[in-house]
């Protein structure tokens, strides 16, 4: 077995590192633009959002060095321990958690807040990679699929109790499972469920059930026309499809009207055009869209965005940071961010496919899937294609826990990638 080199930077993919620092640096510039004032513009002022973010950025450098210093095999060997610690940290929120912005998702240490859910994603990716990389593990077996689902949905459930929006990201792991051989049926089923959810809100239970009944009947008549024996051999499946679809639609209607909070229903209705409110529930979204569109092709210039400086968009330095990019840097700036993320995702996947070790490959797909979900949902939310769910834009949105969580997620893969040439 070859020995690993003592130089912690040997084999590091500097393209990934460069993209990381460009995103982080560009993100800080937009946080500065979204939160600075004429009276308080000193870069290192820790009483400001941009000052605190700069401190987290500086502290991320020793974190990166520590991640690269540790032997790559360590992350695989102790993946289960990391996952257990993350579960315990999420459980601890029920007793020791502090509520911020309506979500009891934080530990408070003096003036510093720590959000364990940001780190749980990386540890879940490690645990799933460890499970799937076992030579004896067969994902085609139902019992093994259940094991994978437990690893994915246990932290998601604990997070959803406090912050349902953040738990959505865990659906990204189905891309990983699909890459490792899980049938597409789960993704198709999930997509169908989302479609039925939206259609139920738009058209109501009665009309949707009638429409679905008619659609299935047309399909049934077509199949019977092609083969008279079709109904004889498939009537159980057809009946089950009717019943399950009807139960699901009724369940969605009940949950939507009796389980979701009013503000959550309002967000869906604004998104789907059922509520045109732009002053109350739809205010943030409307202001974000107007702010982005006001930037035009080339933007108004750094610190020259009048809507950003006027604080038209609430929480613009966090979930709505993309609107700052749109106003001050225009279409060129937003395209720059999108292209950088696409390059980052492509680079991670291409490097993951080169791994001889399954743990590294599967973890790499987990990293790419998580980043992709955050990227799509955040930007889709800001431009009005998806409901507001409070998901940060990786490396760009304000937040120390978010930055460190994504840094940990990415640089563990960077270490595994640098270590892939050695025998495990």
From TrEMBL:
UniProt keyword Transmembrane present: yes
Subcellular location: Membrane
Alphabetized UniProt keyword annotations: Cell shape, Membrane, Transmembrane, Transmembrane helix
InterPro entries: Cell_cycle_FtsW-rel_CS (IPR018365), FtsW/RodA (IPR001182)
Superkingdom, taxonomy of origin: Bacteria
Membrane-topology descriptor: Multi-pass membrane protein
Transmembrane annotation, as ranges: 12-33, 53-71, 78-97, 148-177, 184-202, 208-225, 237-256, 329-350, 362-383, 395-414
The protein's name: Cell wall polymerase
